[in-house]
Structures are given as structure tokens and as C-alpha cells.
């Protein structure tokens, strides 16, 4: 599982460091950029955020340890004279990362804000965004975006909290399919990070004609990022099928844990296969054959697929 996560992280890092991808992502997530043209945003991208702050890739705050900042970027004001905003972008592919994601995001954004050294000039502190992209995490076909900032909870707003939005958390839940008829930033994120079914020739056509992106380097890394979903599913099966039952420490506990997890995984695996748009059960079986799974799980998954494809 760790190797898969590293592969996905590497691919995401390469993608988000492409200026076109970063600019569209920033337009989708950053309130200050939503009314700006993508080309203007691209011109605002400066050195990566670590260099802007004078930090190494793993800055250390006394007593708080280190965090990696592979995807931290600085944005200058349109006049180019001064850095105005820091943007950290992360991807979370796992259904259950094993910790509260909102606490991790809050930890990141507060650390990034604290890394700055105003030397007494607190008005020079830059706004910080921590953006978390969750591919394939909503099933209603719509992008869900939630933005959080500090606000007054109780009592009269005096003195006013004028800079409560200097730290923002943004969570973007992406659907499984790209369906936009025209270019828009949220649809771009689905296209780039979430839709595993789209063919490369159509992807190239959409990027060229709708988003004016012609670079070919990102196709390699997007492919690796998409492949991590299938690999993650295989690893998830191994973990669920053979580890959950261990918690009981009994033979019957193992059997029950495995049976329950296989039923759950059959549904997850069928969802993944359906997301790749098989035309019939024959194509669905071809996709299913890519996975090294037990005969029992194979049959359970076929049964789930038949419910949707409605054919034998």
C-alpha cells in the first residue's frame, strides 16, 4: 500500500507542478482568483512557496516536527511587486486514510501561516490556502467544494475579525465522470484527477480545444495517477480480506471478517469497473480479469455487475 501511495503522490506532484494544471486548480479553489483569467493566474505564479518563505522542503517548527511541502506555491500580486498568497495543494485518494482529514488540513494551514516571519510587521503576513482534492469521492455526478475560514461564533463582532480569512481550508470532492460542455475550473479537476474512463485521444482533444493546453508531459503522469486507483483497489482487497478478521484473534473471527470484507469489496470493485464504462458483461469480465482475486470474490463481483448492466 505504501508503494502505491508514493507512486500516486509522485504523479500528483508532477501534475500539479505543471503551470496550466496549477492555474486551473487555483482558479477553482482560491476565492481571490475566481474572476481572473487563467493566463493572468499563470503569470502570478512565482517560485515555489518554500523558496518564497526561505524554507527547505521539510521545514521544522521548534517542538512541532517536520512536514513535507512538495506542493506549496507562491502567487504574486498582478502588479508583480510582492507575494500575496501561498497555496498548498494535496490529493487524498484513500477512502479511509486512518485519521481525521480535517485535522491534518488544519494542522497544515496553521503551520504554513506560522512559518512566516513578519518581524513585527503583521500586516505583511500572506494569506494561506490548504486545498485538498478528493478524486472519485462523490456519486451524484457533481463537484462538491467546501471552504472554511475563521469567523465570529458568539458575541458582538467587536473588535471586528478583519483577517479571519487569512487561513482557508478547501476540500474538493470530485465525481467519477467529466461531463462539462465548456471549460470550467471544477470540471477541469474532474478531468485531470478523477475520470479514469476517458480515452487519451478525447482527453487530448478536450485539453487542446477547451483548456488550450498542449503539453504532452502531463499525460504520462496523469496515466500513473489514474492507475493508482486500480492498484489501490487490489491492495485494499488484500488488506480487508486477510487482515480485518485478525482483530478477533480467532479462526471464526477471521472467517467472518473475510466474508464481510469480500462482500463490501465486491461492491467497491464493481463500482470501479462500471466507472470504466464497459458496454456489456463481456467487457466487464475483461476488466475484472485484471485483478488477481479469489474465485468466490470473482463471482460476487459479477453478481454486482449484473445488477447494473442488466445482462448476462
Describe it:
The chain has 312 residues and is of the alpha/beta class. It folds into two domains: 19-214, no CATH class; 231-309, no CATH class. Helices cover 47% and strands 13% of the residues. The chain is built from eleven helices and eight strands. The protein has helices at 2-16, 19-29, 38-44, 49-53, 101-115, 185-193, 200-209, 217-243, 251-275, 281-288, 295-309, and strands at residues 45-48, 60-61, 65-66, 72-76, 83-91, 127-134, 144-148, 167-173. The strands form two sheets. It has a six-stranded mixed β-sheet with strand order 1-4-5-6-8-7, sandwiched between helices. Helix 10 packs antiparallel against helix 11. The two termini are 34 Å apart.
**Main sheet strand line-up:** 1-4-5-6-8-7
Q: Round the mean pLDDT to the nearest integer and report it.
A: 78
N/C terminus separation: 34 Å
Strand tally: 8
Return Rg in Å: 22 Å
Number of domains: 2
Shape: globular
- How would you sum up the major sheet? 6 strands, mixed
Oligomeric grouping of the chains: single chain
Indicate the structural class: alpha/beta
Number of helical stretches of at least 4 residues = 11
H/E topology pattern = HHHEHEEEEHEEEHHHHHH
Low-confidence stretches: 239-257
Helix proportion range: 40-55%
- Strand fraction band? 5-15%
Question: Which labels suit this protein?
Answer:
312 residues; alpha/beta; six-stranded mixed sheet; two-stranded antiparallel sheet; 11 helices
In short:
α2 (19-29) packs across α3. The chain is α/β, with parallel strands linked by helices.
Task: Give the topology, please.
Layout: H1 2-16, H2 19-29, H3 38-44, E1 45-48, H4 49-53, E2 60-61, E3 65-66, E4 72-76, E5 83-91, H5 101-115, E6 127-134, E7 144-148, E8 167-173, H6 185-193, H7 200-209, H8 217-243, H9 251-275, H10 281-288, H11 295-309
Parallel strand pairs: 5-6, 6-8
Antiparallel strand pairs: 1-4, 2-3, 4-5, 7-8
Helix pairs in contact: 1-8, 2-3, 2-6, 8-9, 9-11, 10-11
Amino acid at each position: 500500500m505504501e508503494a502505491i501511495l508514493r507512486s500516486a503522490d509522485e504523479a500528483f506532484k508532477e501534475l500539479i507542478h505543471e503551470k496550466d494544471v496549477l492555474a486551473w486548480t487555483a482558479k477553482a479553489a482560491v476565492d481571490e482568483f475566481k474572476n481572473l483569467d487563467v493566463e493572468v493566474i499563470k503569470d502570478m505564479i512565482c517560485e515555489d512557496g518554500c523558496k518564497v518563505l526561505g524554507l527547505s522542503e521539510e521545514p521544522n517548527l521548534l517542538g512541532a516536527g517536520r512536514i513535507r511541502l512538495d506542493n506549496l506555491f507562491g502567487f504574486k500580486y498582478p502588479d508583480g511587486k510582492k507575494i500575496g498568497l501561498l497555496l498548498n495543494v494535496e490529493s487524498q485518494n484513500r477512502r479511509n486514510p486512518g485519521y481525521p482529514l480535517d485535522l491534518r488540513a488544519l494542522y497544515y494551514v496553521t503551520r504554513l501561516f506560522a512559518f512566516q516571519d513578519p518581524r513585527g510587521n503583521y500586516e505583511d503576513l500572506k494569506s494561506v490556502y490548504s486545498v485538498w482534492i478528493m478524486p472519485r469521492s462523490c456519486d451524484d455526478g457533481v463537484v462538491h467544494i467546501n471552504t472554511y475560514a475563521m469567523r465570529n461564533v458568539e458575541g458582538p463582532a467587536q473588535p471586528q475579525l478583519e483577517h479571519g480569512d487569512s487561513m482557508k481550508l478547501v476540500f474538493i470532492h470530485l465525481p467519477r465522470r467529466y461531463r462539462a460542455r465548456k471549460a470550467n475550473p471544477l470540471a477541469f479537476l474532474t478531468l485531470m484527477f478523477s475520470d479514469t474512463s476517458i480515452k487519451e485521444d478525447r482527453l487530448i482533444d478536450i485539453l487542446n480545444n477547451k483548456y488550450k493546453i498542449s503539453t504532452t508531459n502531463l499525460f504520462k503522469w496523469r496515466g500513473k495517477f489514474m492507475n493508482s486507483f486500480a492498484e489501490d483497489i487490489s491492495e485494499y482487497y488484500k488488506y480487508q480480506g486477510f487482515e480485518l478478521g485478525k482483530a478477533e484473534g480467532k479462526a471464526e473471527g477471521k472467517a467472518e471478517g473475510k466474508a464481510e470484507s469480500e462482500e463490501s469489496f465486491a461492491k467497491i470493485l464493481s463500482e470501479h469497473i462500471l466507472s470504466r464504462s464497459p458496454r456489456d458483461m463481456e467487457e466487464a469480465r475483461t476488466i475484472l480479469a485484471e485483478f488477481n482475486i479469489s474465485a468466490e470474490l470473482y463471482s460476487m463481483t459479477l453478481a454486482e455487475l449484473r445488477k447494473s448492466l442488466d445482462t448476462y
